[in-house]
Amino acid sequence: MGFYDFEKDLEESDRSTKEEIIPTLERFGYKVLKTNDDKEFDIHVVTKHGEYLIEYKQDMECFRTGNVFVEFESREKPSGINTTKSDMYLYKIHTPDNRIIIHIAWTNTIKKWIDDNKLPHGSSRIRIATGGDPGSNTRGYVPPYEEYLKLGKIMLKIKL
Fold first, then answer.
1. 52, CA 20 to 30 Å: which among 32, 33, 72, 81?
2. How far apart are CA 110 and CA 69, in angstroms?
3. Where does residue 62 fall: left (phi above 0), alpha (psi -120 to 50 degrees), or beta otherwise?
């Protein structure tokens, strides 16, 4: 979620990846092998523990909504959490307390949390919202910010 214009959002994501995300990962001992621009993953890294694929997302609306948008469908097709091949989800979140944080979580942890909160017949205890650029009909789970934080760890906090 961001400018509600796919090209502008992609440009901001590319800038943020190069200027903020890769340096943060490197400070934590991740060596970036490559970046990618398809639905499977965004960043391929290696650490002393092995190789991992990372999906990078940015939520620019959390400061206003108090929720984190976890995309699962766009243009009436599975996307985001439903199509990623990533091992980890890394989020840059503009928070309700006027900070920017970089948060990382195992993708399987997020998927399990989503599954654990589903009710019979496909409904969910997690609210679902629509967002994205006009015409995209992008849908996502919107867990409360504080609850989402429990799924992983904060790598970096920046006070605005």
1. 72
2. 12
3. alpha
